[in-house]
Design a protein that fits this description.
Blueprint: E1 10-12, H1 20-29, E2 35-39, E3 45-55, E4 58-67, E5 71-76, E6 83-98, E7 104-108, E8 111-116, E9 122-126, E10 131-140, H2 141-150, E11 167-171, H3 174-184, H4 190-211, H5 213-216, H6 227-242, H7 250-256, H8 261-272, H9 276-294, H10 299-306, H11 311-322, H12 326-332
Helix pairs in contact: 3-4, 6-8, 9-10, 9-11
Length: about 325
């Protein structure tokens, strides 16, 4: 290991010692360049893998591939104990078996995964015709520890981001999807791109930590909230996130979450930093922003789809949050 630079294992095909694809992966992940991409040969498959080295302690991999035949990939050696991988499965699925713990792991579309140490590498068997796409952020342990410290969670170690089996799997939230969209569609030139992507990775990790460690950890919760209160507030937020456009009334939400209305109003803000109503408005606006940016919808349609019936109020809230009218935002997207 040189300084704090991430070191990758040697990738091999256990069934083919002269695998052209593995040679390509090894050249990609052991290169010194800021950004490099390999494409699958036409006879082997379709797709690409791109690696972006933002700094010695943080790298991004973007993978979108389909193999025309069965494929096996294994990783040997490398910097196993001190790095963490945060992966987001965008399309298809992939699976692998770890060596040390002999675990069978799988990720499907919409899953987010935090992988630690030995769990990140293992034997992957990819079926013929199987399409998979994912974004992976590889980070050294000290980088994550620094973020936790800045977030006021210095008493927690990076291992708090993973389960006791060194693997945490969840659903990719809308907020995370929006940031991933920005990363995948970045068209800036190299110097500015590096600055932009570093900021986006920091934003993505902040969202991920807020939705995992900070949301579910009693240690990080207000001291006057019991475990039962926190469970109820988590249920309330999950109900809202599942259908923010059709969010129930405060009294109905309290009943669904098995909380009294006063407790919900007072404690939701204490735990999540916003009152329930403000949280609903904020998430609706983010959904509208995403629709205007990626969908073929009018401003009126976007407002109605996310739960706003008053177009004037929608425009006012949108302008306050994003600094521009929704009609102007759509023109520039």
């Amino acid at each position: 290991m040189t300084g704090n630079k991430i070191e990758y294992p040697v990738v091999v095909n256990p069934h083919n010692g002269n695998c052209q694809i593995c040679d390509g992966f090894n050249s990609l992940y052991h290169a010194d360049s800021f950004e490099k991409e390999i494409r699958l040969p036409n006879l082997v498959g379709d797709g690409y893998c791109r690696r972006i080295a933002l700094k010695p302690s943080v790298e991004i991999s973007i993978v979108d591939m389909t193999f025309f035949g069965d494929m096996a990939i294994d990783g040997k050696g490398g910097d196993r104990p001190s790095f963490y991988d945060l992966s987001f499965c965008l399309e298809g699925s992939f699976r692998w078996r770890t060596k040390e713990k002999n675990l069978e792991l799988e990720a499907q579309r919409g899953d987010s995964l935090m992988l630690c140490g030995e769990t990140a590498y293992g034997l992957s068997n990819i079926d013929k015709g199987q399409h998979f796409s994912y974004v992976n952020i590889k980070m050294r342990e000290d980088f994550i520890a620094g973020l936790l410290s800045l977030a006021g969670a210095g008493n927690l170690t990076p291992a708090a981001l993973c389960s006791p089996t060194r693997f945490q799997k969840g659903e990719t939230s809308f907020s995370a999807k929006r940031i991933l969209y920005d990363i995948l569609n970045c068209r800036l030139s190299r110097g500015v791109k590096k600055i932009y992507l570093e900021a986006k990775i920091t934003e993505l990790l902040a969202v991920y930590m807020d939705e995992t460690v900070f949301e579910n950890s009693v240690l990080l919760s207000p001291p006057d909230l019991s475990k039962e209160d926190i469970d109820g507030l988590w249920r309330a937020k999950s109900i809202l996130d599942a259908d923010i456009a059709g969010a129930p009334s405060l009294s109905h939400l309290a009943r669904l979450a098995n909380l009294n209305e006063y407790k919900l109003k007072r404690s939701f803000k204490a735990l999540y930093g916003q009152p329930v109503h403000a949280y609903i408005i904020d998430r609706r606006l983010e959904n509208a922003q995403h629709l205007l940016e990626t969908g073929d919808v009018t401003v009126t349609e976007a407002a109605q789809l996310v739960g706003f019936n008053d177009l004037g109020r929608f425009a006012e809230k949108f302008r306050k949050k994003f600094g521009v009218n929704p009609s102007e935002y759509k023109k520039t997207s």
